[in-house]
Amino acid sequence: MDGIRSDRIDLSGKEGSGIDGKGSREIPILRTLEALRKWRNDARIRGLEVGCIPTMGALHEGHLNLIKTSLSRHPLTVMTLFVNPMQFAPSEDLLSYPRTFESDLNLLQTLLHTSQSHTTTTDTFPGPDYPKTTPTSSQSLGADAGDIKESPLVIFAPTNDVMYPLRGELQDLRRYKGVTVDMKGGGDVMEGVSRPQFFTGVATICTKLFNAVEPSHAYFGQKDIQQALLLRVLLTDLLVSHPLPHNLHILPTTRDPIDHLALSSRNAYLTPPERAVAPVLYQALTAASKLWDTGTDISGEDIISTATSVIADERQRISINEQGVELRHDYIEVFDPETFEPIRSSVNVWKKKRRDMGQSTGAVIAGAVWVGRTRLIDNLLLGWEVD
Ligand SMILES: Nc1ncnc2c1ncn2[C@@H]1O[C@H](COP(=O)(O)OP(=O)(O)OP(=O)(O)O)[C@@H](O)[C@H]1O
Ligand SMILES: CC(C)(CO)[C@@H](O)C(=O)[O-]
Ligand code: BAL
């Protein structure tokens, strides 16, 4: 097997249709660092760019849109699938987090069949002059190696021991013995207040994933805007070259087409009556965002209280009509996406100050609510767009 270990699952559903069977396609699943690095090195030798989408699985259309974009832009894409214990505080939902590996594979299989072909681009990995060749068919390659080389998509699904080789306690950070990456400043606000170890966990695992995959490009969702913006800061501050900070792409939030609820793996926790209430966060952010561009001299506080009152009204309504559903406001914040500073006073004064400094005047309104035991987050961009 030429050093590459992969678990190959035939998803065609046809008996006897293995890798050579007609109509069957398999997505290579790499579980070890050795397998991943071998695959990555082959890509480098062939001069092929690698796009990377870190996930925790339980895939939905939001994840698929990230993967589709990477597949359409790069010859090779790796989706990582790892439920990272370190970003869950001991009191949080690590154990109940949805794990749906088989259906994730089915979704990816369907996606691969329907996705468009990529535009081949050349990787710019700094290092020795690797020979650049065009990707070939499996020709003289062994079946396993050829299969891996030919697939535009691979999954890296490591175990805890692969990602945390020192093992030991992974959730209680006071007792964790290894290396962590902290995100001071921007990591201490909003999500960082409600989930104090969340960004340490995310920054640590993403640093490890970037070291392991060395992706040319990485894709994250706007749904977790603070996470994505902080990861760009991490790439800049830790001088990471794979990916370079400008090659960390943030793609728009994928929403339910009818009520615009942001898709999220945790939506699976919602009971039907809770699911009916969940779009209130989007409604609150939308009402507040309308104030942003009015030009009247409103303050950040005005914007926040508009959103907060939509949530309070819904809470009032459900206390009468939907008894049994609990809605709790966690936070709403309007903030500067570069500094993560809250914008609380006059928006016009803030915009003028930014313009005078030659800086952009885009902001973000973000928030979180609890619907029953499920914590939902969402955000809208004010005056700018993600790439
Ligand atoms: N609705 C969405 N639109 C666009 N990107 C998304 C969406 N939901 C998740 N993502 C992105 O997918 C990547 C993996 O996220 P993750 O696996 O945690 O899924 P999730 O739905 O965000 O789960 P959770 O419910 O735990 O927040 C992240 O970059 C995240 O921002
Ligand atoms: C980026 C990430 C995969 C790190 O575990 C996770 O926080 C997520 O899925 O958003
Ligand atoms: N999508 C962010 C992962 C988490 O909430 O743990």
From TrEMBL:
InterPro entries hit by this protein: Pantoate_ligase, Pantoate_ligase_C, Rossmann-like_a/b/a_fold
The biological pathway it contributes to is: Cofactor biosynthesis; (R)-pantothenate biosynthesis; (R)-pantothenate from (R)-pantoate and beta-alanine: step 1/1
Compositional bias of kind Basic and acidic residues: 1-13
Q: Which reaction does it catalyse?
A: (R)-pantoate + beta-alanine + ATP = (R)-pantothenate + AMP + diphosphate + H(+)
Highest taxon of the lineage: Eukaryota
Region annotation Disordered: where it falls in the sequence? 1-20, 118-143
The biological processes this protein is annotated with in GO are: pantothenate biosynthetic process
EC numbers: 6.3.2.1
Q: Which keywords describe this protein according to UniProt? A: ATP-binding, Ligase, Nucleotide-binding, Pantothenate biosynthesis
Q: Does the keyword Nucleotide-binding apply?
A: yes
Which molecular function term from Gene Ontology is one that the record holds? ATP binding
Under the heading PANTHER family, the entry gives:
CYTIDYLATE KINASE/PANTOATE-BETA-ALANINE LIGASE, PANTOATE--BETA-ALANINE LIGASE
Family stated for the protein in its record: Belongs to the pantothenate synthetase family.
- HAMAP family to which the protein is assigned, alphabetical: PanC
Q: What is this protein called?
A: Pantoate--beta-alanine ligase
- Organism this protein belongs to: Tremella mesenterica (Jelly fungus)
